[in-house]
Amino acid sequence: MQMKCKSKIAHTKRIIGYVVYYSVAFLLACYFLLPFFVLVTRSFMTVEEVGQTLLPSSFNLKNYLNIFVLDNQVDILKALFNSLTIMFFKTLGTVFSSFICAYALSRIKFFGRKVLFAFGMMTIMLPGIVTTISLYSLYYSINWIGTLYPLIVPAWFGGGMMTIFLEMQFMKSISNTMDEAAIIDGANHLQIAFGIYLPLIIPVIVYIAITTAIGSWNDFMAPLTYITKGSYEKYTLPLAFYYKYQSTGGFDPSITRPNEQAALGIFMMLPIFILFAFFKDKMIKGISLAGGIKG
């Protein structure tokens, strides 16, 4: 009888624990999803309803259609094409060049390798804003200001030291016997890199590719710095968003049109959602593999 009573008390405590756990989780989920809920509902509102109600009186796609109307000489479709172009080539350049650099620094013994790696790691300590003026001067001297080149070309020269370091640490965990066997069979470094190491670090490569693509898609400061105002054909999507709505000045909703801003915000989020939906498992696998590596 006493055992049954203890079992019943334990069962009750377990149920109460589950109720409290899921209740708190539900409240936290509501708290964090509230801004997204407001963004979605506002995208269907009229200008008059914004700030007056939480739900729109009717759901229509007028705001989503209006964002593609040429306004302030800003073409959203052209900006979308530019953003996709930059994202594709920047991601490709980062993945390719970082892999080559990581393989060379981790698997090829050459004079000054450690010094080169040390200088590379030192660049991580420099805030990006510190190099903005010097980079702007460099790009200005070669007539790249107002073009897409500053947003694409640098990715083909290493892709960032943190990316290289991540791949290096993973490559160092692979046994040297694979290299030795390939060399005995007559393979050169390119064959070893792309035939042996590349397939083994695919999860890390996917993780780097997705994070680079997301970073490129959301980048606002770099296009704002290097693409001059009035270069409408070169605007990226975040820059077009800014010049279409935010740069008009004032707080008049009829001018800033927060309902159309919300619609454009939802539109800009769709590619990120699609990428995450398709590559979520591989991203998580890449993070777990990278996190388990010890230098």
Textual characterization of the structure:
This protein is mostly helical and 295 residues long. Helices cover 69% and strands 0% of the residues. The model is unreliable at 291-295 (pLDDT under 50).
Keywords:
295 residues; mainly alpha; disordered C terminus
Strand content: under 5%
Tell me, what's the shape?
flat
| Rg over alpha carbons | 26 Å
If helices are DSSP runs of H or I spanning 4 or more residues, what is the number of helices? 14
Low-confidence stretches: 291-295
Q: Mean pLDDT, as a whole number?
A: 85
Biggest sheet layout: none
Oligomeric status = single chain
- By DSSP, the count of extended strands is 0
Distance between the termini: 58 Å
Order of helices and strands: HHHHHHHHHHHHHH
Helix-strand makeup class: mainly alpha
Roughly what percent helix? 55-70%
